[in-house]
Fold this sequence. Notes:
The protein folds into 2 domains: 1-19 and 34-211 and 232-267, no CATH class; 270-440, no CATH class. It is 9% helix and 45% strand. The chain has helices at residues 2-15, 27-34, 36-41, 374-377, 423-429, and strands spanning 63-73, 78-87, 108-117, 123-131, 135-136, 143-146, 153-159, 168-174, 178-186, 210-214, 225-229, 232-243, 248-264, 273-279, 284-289, 300-307, 310-317, 323-326, 330-333, 338-341, 343-349, 353-360, 365-368, 379-384, 387-394, 400-415. The strands form 3 sheets. Strands 1, 2, 3, 4, 5, 6, 7, 8, 9, 10, 11, 12 and 13 form a 13-stranded antiparallel sheet that branches. The longest helix is centred in the N-terminal third of the chain and has 14 residues, at 2-15. It is globular and about 65 Å long. Residues 1-23 and 216-222 have low confidence and may be disordered.
Amino acid sequence: xxxxxxxxxxxxxxxxxxxxxxxxxxxxxxxxxxxxxxxxxxxxxxxxxxxxxxxxxxxxxxxxxxxxxxxxxxxxxxxxxxxxxxxxxxxxxxxxxxxxxxxxxxxxxxxxxxxxxxxxxxxxxxxxxxxxxxxxxxxxxxxxxxxxxxxxxxxxxxxxxxxxxxxxxxxxxxxxxxxxxxxxxxxxxxxxxxxxxxxxxxxxxxxxxxxxxxxxxxxxxxxxxxxxxxxxxxxxxxxxxxxxxxxxxxxxxxxxxxxxxxxxxxxxxxxxxxxxxxxxxxxxxxxxxxxxxxxxxxxxxxxxxxxxxxxxxxxxxxxxxxxxxxxxxxxxxxxxxxxxxxxxxxxxxxxxxxxxxxxxxxxxxxxxxxxxxxxxxxxxxxxxxxxxxxxxxxxxxxxxxxxxxxxxxxxxxxxxxxxxxxxxxxxxxxxxxxxxxxxx
Length: 440
């Protein structure tokens, strides 16, 4: 009987993700408000492991948190991402002996490394599930997991400011195609800035770096929720990455982006479409987030720039009619067995500023796939390493305030298609993943 109840609760819970997320104050909002210092800090513990977050029941099985770091070497030797992930930390949904408590999530510790090698043009995407035998900090942002009997491992070590260096994270790991050791710190003004950087303190202008989305359509005590935290939108990245296919060690001197997002979310019933980039020369930061199927309160664009030398931090929201996006071209990808976008135009408009960005994806993508569970096996993530070009103008006059160019990243995720499609079908039928701007 207990298993029947679990299945009923799970089905009821997961059905919510087909509906929109609301904007009322909920438990997840209160968690973020209570733990604002943790979300802002960047080196504190994993949210889904905290005492405030944990729940001793099966719904805790949908807990998921990732820490996501992009790497863009200034000479183009490598562009890609290293990510560490904790899911279903108690293994509530990871017991293969119980069909009524199905293995929905990649339970325990996980890690991904994907990117494009500049010298060879090779594109790889590796995903590793370590299971429930892992170490991750509740008070500090630490992580360690390994595959017994193999050389596969992932590690994250937080380092507080000292010896002339700012707060930073030391990332290391090894997958099938890559091995790495990287030092990552946020680029911003003031005492936490890396030495030698003069960068506007956009962080000081933000009320918060995160946004909470909640599914409120069913009156359950614990509803679906997700917190997106673009806490380090521009980072300094140093270290090395080894291409294990060729053995070449690539010394990295570059920049990137960090996002730490978490929640209880039936991700496989939806998906996401996001892009990010930083233009260090023009001192522009660009972060675009959207989640499929009526998640308007998690569809937004953050752009930071200089207006005649004055730092500005502007958020454009889809639910206010300020944000639209359009993928003009699509292609069928047999690698992910789904349509994938070849480009995107993103437009944000408010009374003061208009931001227009063109994202050229082309063949700069890699397929992130995993068969660790039947759900992940039916799901796909198209990781992208596109080129960006865009401008901030004054609304009404079109006077250029700032321009931005360069390499960035992004992802488009969706369930795999049940049948093979064509490029023509994709271009005809994927308009549902575009959104017209509603600003007047």
